[in-house]
Amino acid sequence: MTTRWLTAEEQRAWRAYVAASLLLEDTLDRQLQQEAGMPHLYYSILANLSEAPGRSLRMTDLAESLKITRSRLTYAVARLEKDGLVRREECRRDKRGSVAVLTDGGMSVLERTAPGHVETVRASLFDRLTPEQVGQLEEICTRIAQGLQGDDGASGPEDLPWRRRSSRPCS
Amino acid sequence: MTTRWLTAEEQRAWRAYVAASLLLEDTLDRQLQQEAGMPHLYYSILANLSEAPGRSLRMTDLAESLKITRSRLTYAVARLEKDGLVRREECRRDKRGSVAVLTDGGMSVLERTAPGHVETVRASLFDRLTPEQVGQLEEICTRIAQGLQGDDGASGPEDLPWRRRSSRPCS
Q1: B99 touches chain A (CB under 8 A)
Q2: Which ipTM was obtained for this model?
Q3: What fold characterizes domain A8-130?
Q4: Domain ranges of chain B
Q5: Cα of A6 to nearest chain B Cα, Å
Q6: Mean pLDDT across the stretch B149-170?
């Protein structure tokens, strides 16, 4: 099969995307490390739990919501548990599942940290975009995410991070 | 200062962006791990070197081009060097700098791996977007990257990853 190389326009868009996503990840991680001693992923775990009924979620659902592997989630939750911000419980209704619960301490950290995090997201991203571009970004990213999750029937759902056992390589 | 929380539109765009970027990262890393035994960042190091004169770049310039810290780059290059894909040399013109050079082995791996990687980028992203959206994505990401790099004079350049010594936390 002949390789369908990227066009000049696609290459420019791809390089801009890779640069922006790495710089954004670095900015968010740095701000949250300084303010809360944790990277963005850990903050997202606390934020996701805070919005769930009973501030608790099954580990599988949490991994799906975060778009990461269960082993990566298990590693992160273990550290949050050690810091007293999250607690693990057996699921009452489903013996296979284990549940993560946000503790009061975790909720306090989240409430204290949220304003600075949101300010960083705003300053890094939304303050630089027009309302039209915010809509474009949502549409573009929704299409990409749906495609990669097989919502359009294209890719195999067994490949999705939260259905796999293997961990993400740490680079 | 009152927190400027995200609007409903901004929240939707933010969640879609975070989901798409995590899924894309996972897809690219997985494909490259399977085909070349390395994550996307390592592939990008080889690709960047292959395009430079003499297939070599100063470590500082390579870190800037990749938007990562020098310590993260040093770690990655050490592994690529161990695999014989990259070689480190002292910079002839500048005693402070060290240079990374793509070896013939590294070039072979890149040539063998590039078609599959480009196909994955295309299938994950460009095949799902209209030409208009490709242009929108470039413009949005260029604005974000320029802002975060201080190209608009807003943020302090000493904060940029490639000018720092501290490493990125591994989550």
Answers
A1: no
A2: 0.89
A3: Arc Repressor Mutant, subunit A (1.10.10)
A4: 8-130
A5: 7
A6: 66
